[in-house]
Amino acid sequence: MKWLRDAILLLGFTLLLWPVILKTANWMGWEADWSVIAQNSKILFSGQYPQGEVWRIWVGLSMISLWLGISWGIWKESMKRLALPVLLCFLFFIFLPFSSSSSKAWLCLESSLILTGYWIGNYRPKWGKRIGLIGVFLLPICFLLLTGASILPSVETRLWGGFLLTLFTSVISFLLSLPLGVMLALGRKSEWPAFRWFGIVYIEVVQGVPLLAILFIAQYILPLFISYEVSFDPLWKIILGFACFNAAYLAEIFRGGLQAVSHDQYDAAKALGFTDWQMMKEIILPQAIFAILPSILSQFIALFKSTSLVTILGFTDLVGIGKKIASNPYYLGSYEEVFFFISILYLFISTLISYVCRGIEKSLSRSR
Amino acid sequence: MRRVALIQLVAIVMFLTVACQHAAPPKEQKSLLDQIQERGKVIAGVSSTIPGFGYLKPDGHYEGFEIDFAKAIAAAVLGDPDAVELRTAGMQESLVSLQTGQIDILFYSVTWTATRDSSSVGLNFAPTIYYDGQGIMVRNNSGIHNLKDLEGKRIGVIKGTTTELNLTDQLRKLGVHYQPVVFDEWIAAKEAYEKGSIDAYTADRSSLVAYRTALSTPSEHRILREVLSKEPLSPAVKGGDDQWLDAVKWILFATIQAEEFGITKANIDQFLQSQDPQIARFLGQEGDLGKHLGLSPDFTVKVIKAVGNYGEIYDRHLGPGTVFDLDRGLNALWTKGGLMFSPPFR
User: Fold this and answer.
1) Pair A155, A50: CB distance under 8 Å
2) Residue predicted with more confidence, A132 or B33
3) Cα–Cα distance between A83 and B184 in angstroms, integer?
4) What ipTM did this prediction achieve?
5) What are the Cα distances from residue B189, in Å, to A238, A252, B203?
6) CB B203 within 8 A of CB B135
7) Averaged pLDDT for residues A25-44
8) Angle CA A178–A179–A180, to nearest 5
């Protein structure tokens, strides 16, 4: 009688939610004026990034697409969960009526690069290690490409904005916080009191202070204490702030992971004559990291969403751009459309990550 | 364990030494004006979410009434209206950036008040570029005609603003009992106002005009004639730098004086031939006004060629051709009954 129960539930929910669904659909289809998104799509995605240099973003995206495709071909299942939705997203934007023809052409290229990559990866499954190594350097290369690296005309980070800034800030600060978090977790378990106390105090202090306060300190208060000669790029100050904040939370997750590894493993490693460092690197960390991968990724989702705080500090991430568009006299009444669109983008990325996360969990439980 | 303790001690001492060196006192003080000329760009804090005053266009450039004044400063100091880096942040954050010297000047519709101007806050204010006042928006059919009619009504206001305090002051003076409804942002207040869960909404009158255009049927709403407060919106600079403050003051006065002379972006070349000594002095053809201020002799010409006179800037962003269609009111020239007045250029 399972189907009957399901049918009743479905009917009940539909009846309950029917007015909401109807109203939303009516609003999306007829009342809303989506031209505001069409006309502002450039700044929504890349902010004030100069129009003439936008090709760099596309080239960066092409490299990432090719890499995604190849790793999909090599590792199949777990990367498929990342590559396929991205491909579908590209296709979706190609068929969206308001995408400009040049971005449609670029998106076609990106999609075909993913497919080509898949084909290459399929034929060269032994490239795994090389591709993994390239993946490490991919983001720094993209960063240099986007800033100009003193070869191309320089584009300051303050001009970055919209989706580009949101994604970049969250990914880079997350990657930076990973080693920091590991160090803190190890420090907290260290036998040296100075390290242990530093770890404990750092984690407690950072977890006890709101993120906004940390960002505020990083951006405005720190320059007062540090000599005036040293002036960091403001975006990097923000990224460091995020990384330091996230590291404290990651450290606690890592500590959980380290404790989850059975004590027998430590004893066995020591009995085999491993040094402390070898034991951590070869035996404990690999097990610990796989145990906590899902919680790490959900921490990333939290970080991704909290990047919208940078708006207050003068950066125009996705939410910031939304507020600014809605303040343009020509689009004054269009708050709803703009923020609806932005929410969809956030939802897409967060759902994508948790989908990938579930895939990893599944393949992990299978390999056990 | 002895050695370990020693290493730790050495590490801590080294860390402290490095930290102390970094905390060394900053270099000698130089006027911001010189620093800007060396740097080659003005760093201006601007608002980016106040309709008409500062907003982002689809092509990624900022535009607005206050943005044009920031460009005027860059044109006068560096000869290039685009040599300005616009930093947008929240109001409080921008004030902190100004105090810590990360921005040179702030155009954020800041109300000039005694507290902010005092040396304890450490700001200085340049001449007012927009005289605003707090107003109240109501529905036409609400039967509210003046402040007394607000008895028992629900009034929406944004949290933590001078607006909130002014409302309390004014209505308490009149003995009107009302129900304040506090919002974080205009967008939430707008929803509440349109759905009828608040009867009135209060903000600066220029903002009210802008917000009214965002409502579904703007013509069903009106702004009460009564003005609750004085809001002189002025650019702010960091205190203690007279040379920079003077330069900013006279660049702003130049736009007002140009309007008084009738000099516009279009006809300035004819005025450059003028035999009138006042105009020749103003445009730097005679005398050395610019030099005394640390600017080039013809800084006024650069300003007007870049953004036009005060009236032109006003009309471009707030005047009849725009959705706001704001009356000049207090912002008319003193010769036309307004408050815009420039001290003599001599």
Assistant:
1) yes
2) B33
3) 40
4) 0.76
5) 31, 41, 11
6) yes
7) 86
8) 90
- What number of CA atoms fall less than 13 Å from residue B216's CA on the CB side? 11
Which pLDDT score, from 0 to 100, does residue B25 have? 46
Q: Helix, strand, or coil here: B154?
A: strand
Chain A interface disruption, residue of B13, B15, B43, B56, most A CBs within 10 A: B56
Residue B18 in this model has a pLDDT that exceeds 60: no
pLDDT above 70: percentage of residues in chain B: 92
Contacts of A312 in chain B (CB under 8 A): 89-90, 93
Does A228 sit within 8 Å of B26, measured CB to CB? yes
Say which residues have a Cβ less than 8 Å from residue B130's Cβ, sequence separation at least 6: B53, B65, B109, B206, B232, B233, B331
Q: What's the 3-state SS for A92-110?
A: HHHHCCCCCHHHHHHHHHH
Residues B224-236 have a mean pLDDT of 91
Alpha carbons A235 and A147: distance in angstroms, whole number = 12
| Other Cβ atoms closer than 10 A to B115 | 8
Which range (A241-250, B35-44, B79-88, B152-161) has the least confidence? B152-161
Residues in B whose CB is inside 8 Å of some CB of A read 4, 8, 11-12, 21-24, 26-27, 48-52, 54-61, 85, 87-90, 93-94, 96-97, 100, 102, 187, 190, 210-211, 213-216, 322-324
Min Cα separation B144/chain A (Å): 25
Task: Determine contact, residues B238/B99, Cβ cutoff 8 Å.
Answer: yes
Query: Residue A329 — left, alpha, or beta (φ > 0 → left; ψ -120 to 50 → alpha)?
Result: alpha
SS3 call for B107: strand
pLDDT (tens digit, 9 = 90+) per residue, A62-111?
999 999 999 998 887 778 888 888 898 888 888 877 778 888 899 999 99
Does residue B11 or residue A120 have the better pLDDT?
A120
Contact B89 A314 (CB under 8 A): yes
Q: How far is A35 from chain B (nearest CA, A)?
A: 12
Where residue A191 falls (left for φ over 0; alpha for ψ -120 to 50; beta otherwise) is alpha
CA A288/CA A183 separation, integer angstroms = 14
- Which candidate, B309, B299, B298, places its Cα nearest to that of B331? B309
pLDDT tens string A159-178:
888 999 999 899 999 999 99
Three-class DSSP category at B101: coil
| Alpha-carbon span B265 to B71, nearest angstrom | 14
Residue B6, number of CB atoms within 10 A of its CB: 10
β-pair partners for B105: B44
Q: Do the Cβ atoms of B109 and B205 come closer than 8 Å?
A: no
Per-residue pLDDT, A159: 85
Q: Which residues does residue B132 pair with via DSSP β-bridges, in sequence order?
A: B231
Residue partners of A151: CB distance under 8 A and separation at least 6: none
Counting Cβ atoms within 10 Å, is residue A225 exposed (0-12), middle (13-18) or buried (19+)?
exposed
CB contact under 8 A, A158 and B102: no
Burial (CB count within 10 angstroms: exposed 0-12, middle 13-18, buried 19+), residue A65 = buried
Listed residue (B295, B291, B311, B286) closest to B251, CA to CA: B295
Say if residues B153 and B197 touch (Cβ distance below 8 Å).
no
Neighbours of B62 (CB within 10 A): 21
- What span, in angstroms and rounded, lies between the C-alpha atoms of A43 and B251? 32
For the stretch B132-190, pLDDT in tens is: 999 999 999 988 998 889 999 999 998 767 788 889 999 999 999 999 999 877 778 88
From B291, B246, B243, B296, select the one nearest B29 (Cα to Cα). Answer: B243
pLDDT at B19: 52
